[in-house]
Amino acid sequence: MIEYPTRAEDDPKRKAVDFLQWSMECCGIENGPEDWANIGIAQYAFELPMSCCYNPNEKNHYGRCTTTGSPQPFKKPCVQATKDNFRLYGGLISGIAIAIAVVQLIAACFACMLANAVIF
To answer: Does the domain formed by 4-90 have CATH 1.10.3470?
Structure first.
């Protein structure tokens, strides 16, 4: 976050921060939008990166993203948004992984049976 203001708009690291904040509807790391004010750059005391309010790739938004204006910035910190997504999708991903492992185990058993049938 500290390097965000010094990077060009097309820098991959800056784009990654923007994509994360917009896609997960979060702003800041642990304390929400206040994190931007705490990095010590006067610009972010009241004004936030556009990705805290808008899709950073769209150019049809109006105004700026501020802590007090409209539209309101995303309030959820990105750490909390990440944890929420892991809770939400963790069971689904685990279930799919277990199902794939079971299919692979069954396939390995059939391969062993086929190998024994061919040899004898």
So the answer is: no
Q: What is the pTM of this model?
A: 0.66
Residue 74: HSE in the Cβ half-sphere, 13 Å Cα cutoff: 25
- Domain map of the chain by residue range? 4-90
- How many helices and strands (H and E) does the chain possess? 3, 0
Give the three-state DSSP class for 111: helix
Residue 113's pLDDT is what? 94
d(CA 107, CA 41): 58
Residue 52 CB partners (closer than 8 Å, separation 6+): 21, 27, 28, 33, 36, 65, 73, 74
pLDDT tops 60 at residue 60: no
As a whole number of angstroms, the distance between CA 53 and CA 22 comes to 7
CA distances from 83 to 4, 30, 41, 88, 106 (A): 23, 12, 28, 9, 34
Contacts of 5 (CB under 8 A, 6+ apart): 41, 43, 44
